[in-house]
Amino acid sequence: MAKKETITILDIARHTGLSKGTVDRVLHNRGEVSKKSHEKVMRAIEELGYEPNVYASLLARSQDLTVGLLVPAAEPGSFWELVSAGAGKTAGSVETFGLSPRLFTYDQYDIDSFRDACRQLLEARPAGVVIAPLFQEETNRFARELESGGIPYVFIDSKPDTIGHLAYFGMPPYQSGYLCADQLTGGQDIPSALIVRIRRDRDSRSDPTLNRRAGFMDYMEQYCPECPVFHLFIDPNDPAGIDRALDAWFRLHPDVRHIVMLNSRIHLLVPWLERHPDRRRRVVGFDNLRANMDALRRGTVTCLIAQHPEEQMRQAIEALADYILRKKLPENKDNFMHMDILTRFNVDYY
Amino acid sequence: MAKKETITILDIARHTGLSKGTVDRVLHNRGEVSKKSHEKVMRAIEELGYEPNVYASLLARSQDLTVGLLVPAAEPGSFWELVSAGAGKTAGSVETFGLSPRLFTYDQYDIDSFRDACRQLLEARPAGVVIAPLFQEETNRFARELESGGIPYVFIDSKPDTIGHLAYFGMPPYQSGYLCADQLTGGQDIPSALIVRIRRDRDSRSDPTLNRRAGFMDYMEQYCPECPVFHLFIDPNDPAGIDRALDAWFRLHPDVRHIVMLNSRIHLLVPWLERHPDRRRRVVGFDNLRANMDALRRGTVTCLIAQHPEEQMRQAIEALADYILRKKLPENKDNFMHMDILTRFNVDYY
DNA sequence: ATTATTTCCGTTACCGTGCACGGAATTCAA
DNA sequence: TTGAATTCCGTGCACGGTAACGGAAATAAT
Question: Domains in chain B, ordered, with CATH?
Answer without folding.
Answer: 4-51 (1.10.260.40), 61-170+309-337 (3.40.50.2300), 173-306 (3.40.50.2300)
